[in-house]
Amino acid sequence: MRDSVRLLGALLKASEKAANIARACRQNETLFQLLIQEKNEEEKNPRFFHDFKTLADVLIQETIRHDIGSEFPELAKMVKGEETNVFSNTLGKTVTVEVLSTRMETTNLLAQVLDNNIITAEALANEIHRDVAVSEVPVDTGIDDFSFDIDVSDLGIWIDPIDSTADYISGNTLVDEATDLHLSGLRCVTVLIGAYSKSTGLPVLGVINQPFYTCQNSQIRWKGHCYWGFADSAKNLKMSFPKPEKLNKVIVVSRSEDSTIRSKLTNCGFSLIEVSGAGYKILSVATGLADAYILSRGSTYKWDTCAPQAILCSQGGGILDFEKFTTNSESTDLDLKYHEDGENHANRGGLIAYREKCTLDLLCKSLVLTTKL
Fold it and tell me: What is the mean pLDDT of each successive set of 10 residues along the chain, which is 373 residues long?
């Protein structure tokens, strides 16, 4: 099996195991309340008054790192994510969370976090150590018929274990009936795993898993859905679902988007809809629920955008730096890139996520020309 197919399989399986852990934590109310821990001042996203880190976040991040490293040892140190792996229990004991060699060792470690609740720790350890097959991943297209060239030695990986943590915690669902966009709620929660080229800084392979895609209400059991996309510098494009062709002139934005930017977009005929979760916003563009996602501020991070950018690139779209685009739209260096940048992993110039070039042309007219006047 070629490394490319093996890597894609490893990322898909890791995303589904992550989704299983997220569902297990969310569906056990006693466990869920125990897991929530507010982030300290240094870790908080400045956009939010309250920001949370859950044990689910940490477990998923460390499980993805462990599983990718087991399949590709050369990538073990190249998997980077949002969370620290330090967690404190309700008794004030601080534990470094990691996946250990055996199920029992991981159980005993988690029991320290869970105030010696062995039954719950064992349930989580079972999910962490369970083998997940590619056939279990709820994706539209399998990987058997796909093959592409990828240099594993040139890869770095960014992961967001649970994007839209606030929606994961609250679970309050609100849907825009006209577009079918989920404005908030568990559908907005995503697991993001993106691989990028260290030599170019550009994303090449992305996997997005929605752990809470549909719910069987009679049993309160959630099922997920998964997407993947590949794009390289030679414009070899592959994806797991058909590219939507229809445009709807809908742009998804954050609740804090600048009023001047909003006015420019609406004056160009776009409808603006506020949606939760950076990963879900960009996925909405990829799946055709929106034409673009605009963010004029540097409040997303590399782990938010690497995976979904790869999927948009596989459709011929992409994610551009908002500030660069609005000040020099003719530049050939507008794409978000993922080179190491010290300790600041923010997409500081904001972003424009798009699927079709014609949408980008309209955005140029509404954002760039009006900005220069």
Answer: 86 97 82 63 51 74 95 94 79 86 96 85 93 95 79 95 90 94 97 97 97 78 94 89 96 95 95 97 98 96 97 97 94 91 85 97 84 44
Q: Which of 62, 83, 127, 160 is catalytic?
A: 160
Question: Of 83, 304, 321, 356, which is the active-site residue?
Answer: 304
CB atoms within 10 A of CB 307: 34
Q: Which of 16, 57, 167, 291 is catalytic?
A: 57
Residue 246 · residue 285 · CB < 8 Å: no
159 close to 44: Cβ distance less than 8 angstroms: no
- Cβ atoms within 10 A of the Cβ of 260, count? 11
Q: What is the DSSP letter of 312?
A: H
pTM for this entry? 0.92
End-to-end Cα distance, the chain: 56
The DSSP call for residue 335 is B
b/e per residue 202-225 (b: at least 16 CB within 10 A):
bbbbbbbbbbbbeeeeeeeebebb
